Amino acid sequence: MELSVVIPFLNEEASLEELFLRIQKTCTENNLSYEIWFVDDGSTDMSWSVIENLMIDHPNVHGIKFSQNFGKSQALHAAFAEVVGNVVITMDADLQDFPEEIPELYRMIKEENYDIVSGWKKIRYDKVLTKNLPSKLFNAAARRVSGIDLHDFNCGLKAYKNKVVKSIEVYGDMHRYIPVLAAHAGFRKITEKPVKHQARPYGSSKFGTERFIRGFLDLLTLWFITKFGARPMHFFGAMGTLMFVLGFLSALLLGVYKLVEVYVFKVYGRLIVSNPWFFIALTLMVLGTILFVAGFLGELIIRTRKLEKNYHIEKKV
Is 3-228 in CATH node 3.90.550.10? Predict the structure, then answer.
């Protein structure tokens, strides 16, 4: 199998059949053997019925139905476990992405040997204040933190080598950071390709501006996991040790100062607890101990517990 196309969706009954026909036409014209995995992320309209009807007449169409809305990352994770194509293409179901881009993405993976080719919507047909501007700011922050030079981390149209999607764990809201996860796993040959974009022809977007806030928090989480996820003691232990040592030295200096005050200057009556630095030193020592213990517990957890699936598949056909 040359190509696997993965399409997560939520309430997109109006666009699914048209999307399938365009993918079918594109792959047939370019002599690509293909399969399509549709993942229903808890739709409440007739979307799943559309997929069931497509599967009756087209054996290369497969479907996964979630029992409720678990998120795009979980949908991709479920499909990645099933795909068999040498190249895996992900795309959204809202027809804003062009299936006609698939052959060139496939060629870049196969002939130019890229691990990932990410779509770049240079010209966007979204609302400027609620989508375009926040997206530009988000992508600039993602480039700076991740060190990966992509202009559009959020673009759903991407191509991967099969071994890439089989080697990474997509969880939470990390679907937009798959290139970062892949680079951390050793797949560093990543590029981007400008792709066509159009306004949504049917329905409305399922994502609001709050996704950028979540995305930024996920970026910080990913940065921490990438650097310290396998060795939390290196972060928490170092911070804890530093704070404890500073607190201990401060307390020691206060003790020495008190002894000098009493035995050298003969000043009596002032308690050491009357000095605010005493409480600062005590707080630093307590916080240092807590951080050190947190690092130790983190080490125990990552050695005894594997990442668990956080979705439930109601039906797989």
Answer: yes
